[in-house]
Specification:
The protein has 292 residues and is mainly α. The protein has one domain (9-290). 66% of the residues lie in helices and 6% in strands. The protein is built from eleven helices and four strands, in the order H-H-H-E-H-E-E-E-H-H-H-H-H-H-H. It has a four-stranded mixed β-sheet, sandwiched between helices. Strand 3 and strand 4 (118-122) form a beta hairpin.
Length: 292
């Protein structure tokens, strides 16, 4: 890697604290289920299958959702050159490269492991960014791969998914049962609370992983200013893209470097990404160490 910056202890602490809080509420949740004697093996198995498919087929699902196709070196030689160079600097095997034929300027990484990873960019991104900015964006996506963010977020989501299914099961059980089952009602309420808290914590963890990927891009490329410029261009151009194009790729918003959402966005508490302004502020702090 090109550069080294002082460790961001604040970011590291927040990621550790969020993960710890998730662990604590999951222990509490399992303890309550055990207390009420709920055999949740079937529900856990169903949720496990759901997350298994999401994890092991995420690359195919996201590529399908965006209409992206894997491209060879002969089609996009400059893009392959950038990815190969950055992968080498990051100590990663070169991922597959995909192109999404949409005017929405964006990029994402997916895949269950470093060896199965895919880095995808849109035609809109290639038309919007110069080489330095494109390099910075790819550095961000490679950082997600290096940090194993797909695996971390999938594992973190497991019991939240279980809580969601138990909540729905308890709701329907109490709705259709002829006799009032207080245990089912209590379990449903507890599951709803656990799911909501987990949802907020997982979203927070996702936002922290975005900050971490921005930092990784700056370290790999040694050029945080290029990522700042890229984020500004992407966010500015997305606001001018017709809504029908944004709707076509909305299924991949959680993976994009910037969600392709038109108009007013939802509260930051519920967002998978931190505000662009906050990301730029952190990158500007890093610029002091490299003068770029």
């Amino acid at each position: 890697m090109r550069g080294r910056w002082p460790k961001d202890w604040g970011l590291t602490f927040r990621m550790i604290l969020t993960s710890f809080l998730l662990f604590v509420i999951y222990v509490v949740f399992l303890s309550i289920l055990w207390y009420f004697g709920l055999g949740f093996g079937l529900i856990a198995g169903f949720a496990g299958i759901f997350l298994f498919v999401q994890y092991f087929f995420s690359d195919r699902l996201v590529l399908m959702a965006t209409g992206a196709r894997v491209v060879g070196e002969s089609e996009y030689p400059e893009l392959h050159e950038i990815v190969e160079d950055l992968a080498r600097k990051a100590g990663l095997p070169k991922p597959r490269i995909a192109i999404a034929e949409t005017p929405v300027p964006n990029a994402f990484a997916t895949g269950r492991s470093r060896k199965r990873a895919v880095v995808a960019v849109t035609e809109g991104l290639l038309r919007t960014l110069n080489r330095e900015e494109l390099t910075a964006v790819i550095g961000h996506e490679l950082s997600h791969i290096k940090n194993r963010d797909m695996m971390i977020l999938t594992v973190s989501s497991f019991l939240a998914t279980v809580a969601w299914f138990i909540m729905r099961y308890a709701f329907y059980a109490s709705l259709w049962s002829r006799r009032r089952d207080n245990s089912a009602i209590i379990i449903g309420i507890v599951s709803a609370i656990i799911w909501f808290i987990s949802f907020l914590l997982i979203r927070a963890l996702s936002r922290y992983r975005e900050f971490s990927a921005d930092r990784g891009s700056a370290i790999i490329t040694g050029n945080p200013s290029a990522l700042i410029s890229a984020l500004q261009k992407i966010s500015g151009n997305i606001s001018r893209i017709p809504g029908r194009y944004l709707k076509e790729v909305e299924g991949a918003n959680a993976f994009f470097i910037i969600p392709a959402i038109s108009g007013e966005t939802i509260l930051s508490l519920f967002s998978t990404h931190p505000p662009v302004e906050k990301r730029i502020e952190r990158l500007q702090e890093m610029m002091r160490f490299v003068g770029r």
